[in-house]
Amino acid sequence: MINAMIEVYRTAISGLAAAEARIANTANNIANIHSTGRLPAQPGGTTDAYAPTRIDTQTAPSGGVLIEKNLVKPAYYTASDPDSPKANADGLVAAPNVNLASELVDLKITAVLYAANAAVIKTQSENEKRLLDSIA
Questions:
Q1: CA dihedral 55, 61, 62, 65 (to 10 degrees)
Q2: CA triplet 42, 45, 78: central angle to 5 degrees?
Q3: CA distance 52 to 76
Q4: Among 21, 60, 80, 102, which residue's beta carbon has the most beta carbons within 10 A?
Q5: What DSSP state is assigned to residue 58?
Q6: CA 130 to CA 99: how far, in whole Å?
Q7: Could you list the pLDDT tens digit for every one of the 136 residues in the chain?
Q8: Is the pTM of this model over 0.70?
Q9: CB count, 10 Å around CB of 58?
């Protein structure tokens, strides 16, 4: 019984940690949405533009959530910004492949997930209190 109670907390806490990682990642992507860079000299080459990431999650074998940070692919798209010091001769730059609408939707979903995990912790705590009160 005690192991089951501990498992509930462990699972919910890992969900909170995953939500926290997603919120931080989304904030970073949004903050760098205009961090353009030079286009690579060759297709598929590297650029100094911000490389957006995403947080992927999967169920852990022992319960809870595993977090994995991955690069968004493609990391950039070609944008026109002739006034940028990083623009090529044609006025083009590499712009981070950040979709603001998707990031905001993910932020809202993550807020709901965070609240759900917090509610699990609160409910488990209340159930334990009722159990202890009934024993006493």
A1: 10
A2: 80
A3: 8
A4: 21
A5: E
A6: 47
A7: 677 778 899 999 999 999 999 999 999 999 999 999 999 988 778 899 999 999 999 999 988 999 999 999 999 999 999 999 999 999 999 999 999 999 999 999 999 999 999 999 999 999 989 988 888 7
A8: yes
A9: 10
